[in-house]
Each structure stands twice: as structure tokens, then as C-alpha cells.
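Reopening this ticket.

The earlier resolution said the output was attached, but the attachment link was broken on my side. Pasting everything inline this time so it's all in one place.
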Amino acid sequence: MKKRSAEILMEMISSSRPKFQLSELSKKYQVSIRMLRNDLAEMNSFLEDLDCPALIRSPNGSYCLAEEADGVKIYQRL
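Inline output:
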């Protein structure tokens, strides 16, 4: 997994904010929305390999980890 994808997943696990907008992540990591979508696909593939649920996309376009995702398990594999 790319370093940026791993950093975003770690942020999702450790943050008190439940949802992340692509526009915010784009500014923070200085990459395009398209690149972030590719990262999200990579993260979902990683989560699938761990038998964890995929990232959830809300109707307003924000993303978050599913509540049943095992943050400790994910963090240990990063």
C-alpha cells in the first residue's frame, strides 16, 4: 500500500472526526481528487484482504470507516 493511503487510513482510525471529505484530504495531501479516489480503492482492497468492511461513502461525499471495522487489526497491518 502506498504511504499516503496508509497515512489516510491511520488518520481515519485515530481521529475523533468520523468523516473525511475528499476536498479536505486533497488539500492536506496536495493531490487531486482523482488520485484520492485511487487511494480509496487501494484502501478498500487492503481492508477486503483483512476481512474488514469497506470504507463507507455518505450521500454528501464524505468517507469513513465502518463502525464494525477493527481499528487495531487494521493499524497492526499497516
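Reporter confirms the inline version is readable. The helical segments are 3-14, 22-29, 33-49, 71-77. The chain is about 55% helix and 10% strand.
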